[in-house]
Write a structure and sequence with these properties.
It is built from three helices and eight strands; from the N terminus they run ααββαββββββ. With 197 residues, the protein is α+β, with helices and mostly antiparallel strands. Strands 1-2-3-4-7-8-6-5 form an eight-stranded mixed β-barrel.
């Protein structure tokens, strides 16, 4: 009797997990389709521009819809929506902008986080010198990867504001770890030469 109940319990648990996974996948796809079209409508420029003092349009859009823009790393084929926040819902829908860091295109430290097994899975193929484009309603901003680090999760200093502009991308490491990963994979990029403010 106990084994039978245990078997049914595992069956119900498995069905619940599958249902959650399907719901999360459908929610993410619907969000990407709807907000991808909205972002395309808001853009209208594709050439990188100098950094700006305040990304006022992006900040307003983030407050209204949660959408900030799109991150692209052409060499590795990464093109994902940037969403405000790093909570579970935001990271199920795209790459999250870390609160209290600069917005894309601003002169401070722009920090973005994503899951290693979904939106930031291709970070494992990024190399020093790769181009990163941040497309936002305020403009397109270009960065070049300057370093890649594997650090402890306690390295909050990497998300702190800096005296010089930079882009910091963070995901869990190792990429093929099952369960909560013990380290963080950090990509640091600097503004592309020739388009600095």
């Amino acid at each position: 009797m106990f084994r039978k109940r245990l078997g049914w319990g595992f069956l119900v648990l498995g069905a619940g997990l599958v249902a959650f996974w399907v719901w999360a996948a459908v929610d993410g796809l619907a969000f990407r389709a709807t907000f991808g079209r909205r972002l395309d409508h808001l853009l209208g420029h594709d050439r990188p521009r100098p950094l700006i003092a305040e990304a006022s349009v992006s900040r307003r859009q983030a407050g209204e819809s949660g959408l900030i823009g799109r991150i692209e790393i052409p060499r590795v084929g990464l093109s994902e929506l940037m969403i405000e926040g790093t909570g579970g819902r935001a990271l199920r829908r795209g790459v999250g902008h870390v609160p209290r860091t600069a917005f894309p295109g601003e002169r401070g430290n722009v920090a973005l986080a994503g899951h290693r097994d979904s939106y930031f899975a291709r970070l494992r193929d990024v190399a020093k010198g790769d181009l990163i484009r941040l497309e936002t309603p305020d403009g397109v901003f270009a960065y070049r990867v300057s370093s890649i680090q594997i650090v402890e999760p306690s390295r909050a200093d990497l998300l702190a504001q800096t005296g010089s502009p930079r882009l910091t991308l963070v995901t869990c490491y190792p990429f093929h770890w099952v369960g909560p990963a013990p380290r963080r994979y950090v990509v640091v990029a600097r503004p592309e030469k020739g388009v600095r403010a």
